[in-house]
From TrEMBL:
Transmembrane segments: none annotated. This is TetR family transcriptional regulator. Residues 8-68 form the HTH tetR-type domain. It comes from the Bacteria.
Length: 182
């Protein structure tokens, strides 16, 4: 394995190893030694690249949030009109809930940290703001806020149910939130 400056991907490998470790064993099991071993880097690389475990976790979770926002962007970019937006949101819920179990676990680990610690709450608030901004391209701010919460809830329920609900129910829930009252 390359050392020092000849290994430009080391920092990225450490961050990826951190997320993999959290997905497998939870945040509580994160240590410099465990992450260094998992990333295949010398232990000294940990303190060289990160000021501590909190900096490592914040950076890893920030990268994860960026990944999820990119999934939102993939579904919502280029959508024209409310009906296409509703279909895109339906597709998004099903993509997230049927996607890697790793993403679901990482989301819940981050939410648990955010519930306990303000610095992680700021990270989740920034993530939610970015998600809502993407939704606000197609819906008013209040609807976008409700829809963002619905996406989270439906994704979690679909991912954890032994017999997840079908697209029609997802679409119906989205229609109820996004269709203006008569």
């Amino acid at each position: 394995m390359a050392t020092g400056h000849t290994d430009p991907q080391r920092r990225a490998r450490i961050l990826a190893a951190t997320l993999d470790h959290i997905a497998d064993e939870g945040v509580a099991g994160v240590s410099h030694r465990r992450i260094a071993t998992r990333a295949g880097v010398p232990l000294g690389s940990m303190t060289y690249h990160f000021g501590g475990i909190d900096e490592l976790l914040r950076e890893a979770f920030t990268g994860f949030a960026d990944h999820i926002v990119a999934v939102f962007e993939q579904h919502l970019d280029g959508v024209a009109g409310p009906d296409e937006a509703r279909t895109a949101v339906t597709d998004l819920v099903h993509t997230l809930s049927e996607g890697p179990r790793r993403d679901l676990v990482l989301t819940q680990e981050l939410y648990t940290l955010a519930a306990r610690r303000p610095e992680y709450r700021q990270l989740t608030q920034a993530w939610m703001r970015r998600s809502r901004e993407l939704l606000e391209r197609h819906f008013d701010p209040d609807t976008a806020r409700q829809l963002d919460a619905l996406i989270e809830g439906l994704t979690l329920h679909r991912a954890l149910e032994p017999d997840p609900h079908h697209r029609a129910l997802t679409r119906q829930a989205i229609l109820r939130i996004t269709t203006p009252a008569p």
